[in-house]
Amino acid sequence: MNRNVSHDQSPYNPQFEKNQTLKETFQYATVIDMKTPTIPMASDMEFTTVCNALGDPVRMKIAHCLASSGEKNCSAFEVDHISKSTLSHHIKILREAGLIQPRIEGKQHFYSLRKDDLNSRFPGLVELILNTTGG
Fold it and tell me: Which candidate, 48, 43, 25, 40, places its Cα nearest to that of 99?
């Protein structure tokens, strides 16, 4: 069988191979899902998970910073010199515990403490965070 393949033809052409197109679709869907932040509803927040998240000094500083000043970009957090990946990890733990909520504006990520949700679910917790020295 003689196949004349043009040099212009990309190997990612949908007609090239069905499995490859399926693989590309799967990878694209995975990227979209990874960018969707996981935030529990107030009724689903667990006290032990919230306490565990606040048990780390860096995360407590972040929560204190947000409780006292409102929404901030992650570069404005008053934490020790830690790498961006470590800071992202701490933010993820706080977000998944339900303590903070992101707002994405272009490439910028802004975070705020979910004060209303925390006060309704765990009365006095925000006040306790505000009364700490930030870790």
Answer: 40
